[in-house]
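Escalated from tier 1: pyridoxal-5'-phosphate holo job.
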Amino acid sequence: MSTALRCPFLSRIPVNQVKKTASQLMSYAERCPVMVHAMSYMNGPDMMTVTDEPLEKQCPFFAKEGLTVSDVKSHISSLKDVAPKTEKTAPTADMPVAKATAAEATVTAPKYPSGISVEKTLEKIKLWGKGAEEEMKVKVEEEVQEKEATEAQQPKLFDYEDFFGAQIDRKKSDHTYRVFKKVMRRGREFPYAEDHSTGKKRDITVWCSNDYLGMSWHPKVMNAVSEALKNHGAGAGGTRNISGNSPLHEGLEAEIASLHEKEAALVFTSCYVANDTSLCTLGQTIPGVHMFSDAGNHASLIQGIRNSRVPKHIFRHNDPLHLEELLRKVDSGTPKIVVFETVHSMTGDISPLSELCDVAHKYGALTFVDEVHAVGLYGDQGAGVGQRDGCMDKIDIISGTLGKAFGNVGGYIASTSRTVDMIRSYGSGFIFTTSLPPTTLAGARASIQVLRGEEGKHLREKHQSNVRYLRQNLIEAGIPAIHSPSHIIPIHVGDAALCTHLSAELMNKHDIYVQAINYPTVARGSERLRVAPTPHHTKAMMDYFVSSVIRVWSDNGLELSRERSVCPDECEVCNKPLGIQILQAEEKVCGRSNCTYASLQDIFFTDNRRAVAMA
Ligand SMILES: Cc1ncc(COP(=O)(O)O)c(C=O)c1O
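Tier 2 regenerated the structure:
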């Protein structure tokens, strides 16, 4: 049986470390009065020796307290006859010294909170030795209170881990926490893919890919990528300025400039970076410029405008009249930039491009137009809505992506030579980053070339006809597919948890992958499933998709109603009431070309004509 005392040093060292260094520690034992005392108990009274060396050589703590040799001796001898209560304890980091050195010794000792002074420890040793356990417990409690009070007075340091945890919990509690699906697309067999999200492989079909035309696995694209890899390696090797520029970069930029009928183009590592960098650079360099931003703009456009720190005016989504109202208020000599998208990524709206540009130019503004969801997909050569609508020249600066319809990765702007050169020369997000690798440059160029030609036209036609077929069948089945004039078919759900649940059921029960889109990608209350059929989805696949959605809708007690309109009640521009009956009417909803929904009628007319012709 042995008495144990806590060492103010060892109690702070993890027990494993104490064990590892036990032999070295033991060599100091003779210099430590506590260890000497403990060993004397293990070895019998004859062995009890206390060195007469000056105390400061024995233990810096005891020395600091000004204890004398006789203090220690009398203390140790007073301990000799006192045996504290014993019980088995598991080894811990703050285990008493005696126990750390003698594995069999088992003792009960009050736990001392770390960070308590040596002075207090000494006092405790004395009290313990005299068997004053109760008194000692009180002392320990007092110390804890004292320590807590001191801590409360000290300025509290920011707890980063706590903060991050709370932010994540917030997301989890409102069902906006994102758990990514693990999906391996099957190259040439796309839209077939494998889901690996549950750890078990499952064959699925993908319905929400932005590889809209399947160009990521087009043979010509894959061949260009593999040739570039073989000939030039995997990486670019540097920024454009330092060893990262090549004929492949300049060739791709020339191809993009030609596609958009502009003098020059500049590629970036993504279109997020292209938008952010270009708008920020324009804002920071044009003196006194004001930005006019569409209310529905993508995060990259918002971020670029925000980073530029210039005055910002937000006009109602796709509303040239409101844009004009705002432009009129700013001095005519003030430089201005109007920023908007053509195809809206989440609603599938297409902006009244020509009208918005006309209004902007009337007030001396530049137009910065994001055609990310349109390039490759609209227009004779796939240059976007500007080409489709015959108004490419009204776009002063166009931005596009190489990562969606072009099937690669990266982004770009195209404009006049001076505009591009200015952004090239001042844009931080362009200058200070490794340039795109040869594989991507070659793959993207091959993809643009395919889509500019006959094959591209054919793919675009097939794409649009699949979109029409699927949308029409969903609407007819009473699924709330939002009417949109583009290739994006949003299915309205309106609740984050339900949206996630429906997406999971489609995957788990029907092997269909369609992503739930929740806040912040869309406003709360407008949560949706975003469906993007490609030219490679067959009619049979689309029929299966519709029947699966119907099944999931019914299984979850959701209403299937052709009458339930998910259109806005009225047109945002002309304020005429909208609804499926009006959209299907022979008479045009609105004569204005900038009416967002007038174009929907064209779709219905085309569908009806097709249906009649096929009957
Ligand atoms: C409208 C819009 N602009 C820009 C981007 C960014 O493009 P990238 O994916 O090339 O960064 C996106 C991406 O989804 C987008 O939807």
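The radius of gyration is 37 Å.
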